[in-house]
Amino acid sequence: MTVLTMPARPGHDTAPPPVPWRRMVWVTWRQHRATMISVPAVLGALALFLLFAGLKVHHDYAALTACHPQGSVACEALNRTFNGTDWSMGNVLNILMQLLPVLLGMFAGAPLLARDLEAGTFRYAWTQGVGRVRLTIAKFAILAVVITVLAWAFSQLFTWFFEPFLPQENLNVLSATVFDTRGIVFAAWTLAAFCIGAFLGMLLRRVIPAMAVTLGVYLVLALGIWPLRKHYPVAVVTDNPGSIPFTSGPSTPNSPWFLSSWTSGGKYWTKYIPVSRFWPMQFIEAGWLLALSLLLLVGTVWLVRRRAA
Amino acid sequence: MNVIETSGLGKRYGKAWALHDCTLTVPEGCLAALVGPNGSGKSTLMNMAVGLTLPTEGTATVLDGQVIGTPVALDDIAFMAQDAPVYKNMSVADMLHLTRNLNRRFDGPFARARLTDLGIPLKKKSGKLSGGQQAQVALTLALARRPRLLILDEPLSALDPLARQDFMATVMTTMADEGTSVLLSSHALADLERVADYLIVLGGGQLRIAGEVEDLLATHRVLTGPAAQADRYASQLSVVQVKRAAAQAHLLVRTSGTDDPVLPGWEAHPVSLEELTLAYLRAPQAEADPKPANTNHSEPTEAAR
Amino acid sequence: MTIDKGSSPIEFRLDPSSGVPTYLQLVQQVEHALRLGYLEPGDQLPKVRDVVANLTINPNTVLKAYKELETKGLASGRPGQGTFVTATLNQVTLPELSGLRRSMLGWLGSADEAGLDEDGMVALFTSVLRDFFKRREGAAHASAKDSEAEGVA
User: Fold this and answer.
1) What is the arithmetic mean of pLDDT over B133-148?
2) Shared domain check, C57 and C32
3) Which of C47, C63, C76 is facing A2, going by the closest CB pair?
């Protein structure tokens, strides 16, 4: 039988190699360009501000501590400057720092998947050769890493900025609003907020509701941890008050965190967390936040597999 | 090889079955037309074929037994959803780049040449293009992936007649050049006979009939004769649709394909694809594709809607 | 969008309202072209791709038409090149045509006297035409079976 003409399909049976991961970086960049530009831009602007503000704060603090005699008019003026003007700004910035993770989570995490779902473009993205699981993991991971690293860097800058306020405002590194803006915990909270946002975005499929619920969930978590931190297994119990690294008078950055005290067996027991336990506590908190983040990543991928359309 | 094979496939949302007990096999190299009213399960079936939805019951495989939704299967299947979703804020060139990065196989020069031929500026944002242009962009992106199976969900609905013509001409020439198989859902029944060689009719989430167009046209005909004899005659035959007036009746019947003799006083006429499709769309719980493995003698159970 | 006409002398067109299946229309147009001399042996039939692009029809339909022409011995495909006309149809000569015309006019006159109108004449002619070719096919079938039986025996 004669064969009627039909041109052969070019090279179809040679399976091309799988889509390389570096292409996913471009895809993530292009699809979330707004986020990937605005987050560093905003943080950069804030960082610049913190830099100048921090230089002033450090300068004022140095002037204050060097001032002799303590009670004189000149020194009082410096005191007012530092503990008045500077501290107002420092306080506001500290509050902002508390909110920064959830803001990043809302604006970077929630739209990650929700925007595609809301706009219907997931019908394009999820039917491409790379497959939706790989695409989701790539976008999630790339953005999470970028945001976490930026958050960590920013928190280091803030730590430097805030340092002079600790001795002056009766705070130490274990204080609730101080602990979570330094070390690795700030970055961990940012990562967790991002993951919460992304997960809720996939669950709720709409950007605005996802953002709102992310805010709610994060606040519950963040406020909820404050009373619970003291239960981290780092406390010291002693019946020897003399061994407590404790100074009388206005607390210094080295004052421990007193949890409770009681009498038993004729002795006076004290339970406290010394400042030296700062890093173990940081690791514990970052640890469970990281576990939560991974859980949310797995949950998001599971949802992507199952509940697609 | 079959590009799509389903067995008892179904999808339920809450209490309602969007698609129920669908068994069909679509051979390769065909253009399979998926026809049915809105809400009959067309999009659901297509979504399942590309892995956007997971079945509630039954199984489905694509491209000769591949699991649906995996990168291996998706590699060779290009999907164009309804309303041709493209990223509105991305330029056409960016969409090309994006598609290239999301797939192993992408013919960039072909895509660019085609878009230039169509007069679509590459630098323009996709959202600013007309409906027809967006559809052509989406189709170009799909074709540039050199798929073996092209799945198009109502691609013509937003297009004017000229754009429809261009679009279908492109699809047909791709079939001719590449041997691509196509699954296309459409409301344009009048054009079906020209373009489709496999027909799938869905109604109320059920498969009404499916088969090669040649077979269907050969095994169906209209018998015209006296209305008085209609019922008696109909009881002996597999009737799809009865149209009757006072004196005359038309029976659309299904035969086994051979030229059965017609009762005296009755005339047999061939059936057009459009007529056949409409009859099956209207027929309640009609029988599906008569392949031996497939006994779909559905009782009048109502698909909960 | 300009369509490349290719190197075939003819171009197809479709009549969607004729009720004739698409592939048959293509076959008939080729046969018609052969009869009228538009096509000669050695000429190339339109490329499948071009037909598909012009008419927006399924390529399998075109392939089916070309296969039918092959079966009838009128065309044959050369891999990689196209489908080419291989034979010609009996061309009815001019005097034969005039003779047929005259006898037809006679028949039409009788039909008119019997009271048939134009549509009636067309209907009668079409049904007899169908019967004629069916019988001819049946006869060919039967003779083929006979020769088969003889061959076996």
Assistant:
1) 91
2) yes
3) C76
CA distance C92 to C86: 19
Taking CA B191 as the corner, what is the angle to CA B186 and CA B193, rounded to the nearest 5 degrees? 105
Mean pLDDT of chain B: 84
Task: Report d(CA C49, CA B176) in Å as an integer.
Answer: 6
Judged by CB atoms within 8 Å, which residues 3-62 of B form the interface with A?
Answer: 47, 50-54
Q: What is the ipTM of this complex?
A: 0.83
Domain count, chain C: 2
- H helices within A120-252, ranges in order? 122-125, 132-162, 165-168, 176-179, 185-204, 207-228
* CATH number of C65's domain: 1.10.10.10
pLDDT reading at B302 higher than 50: no
C132 within some domain: yes
Within 10 angstroms of residue C35's Cβ, the number of other Cβ atoms is 14
Say yes or no to pLDDT of B297 above 80.
Answer: no
Per-10-residue mean pLDDT for chain C, 153 residues long? 64 83 90 84 90 91 92 87 82 73 91 90 88 78 69 53
| A273 domain-assigned | yes
Shortest Cα–Cα distance, A230 to chain B (Å): 46
What's the alpha-carbon Rg for chain A, to the nearest Å?
A: 26
Q: Is A111 helix (H, G, I), strand (E, B) or coil?
A: helix
Burial of C147 (0-12, 13-18, 19+ CB in 10 A): exposed
Contact C52 B195 (CB under 8 A): no
The answer, for C60 touching chain B at a CB cutoff of 8 Å, is yes
Cβ neighbour number for residue C126 with a 10 Å cutoff: 10
The whole-number average pLDDT for the span B107-127 is 91
3-state secondary structure of C23: helix
C57 contacts in B (CB within 8 Å)? 172, 194-195
Distance from CA of A1 to the nearest CA of C (A): 9
Please state which CATH number belongs to domain B214-282: 3.30.70
Per the CB < 8 A criterion, the answer to whether B216 and B65 are in contact is: no
pLDDT of residue C106: 92
Q: How far is CA B114 from CA A23, B109, B249, in A?
A: 24, 8, 52
CA–CA min distance C59, chain B (Å): 5
Which residues form the domain of C59?
22-85
Biggest alpha carbon–alpha carbon distance for chain C: 63
Nearest CA in chain C to A7: C80
pLDDT tens sequence across B57-82: 998 889 888 888 888 888 899 999 98
The predicted model gives A115-124 an average pLDDT of: 90
Record: contact B86-A124, CB cut-off 8 A: yes
Tell me: pLDDT of B291 over 70. no
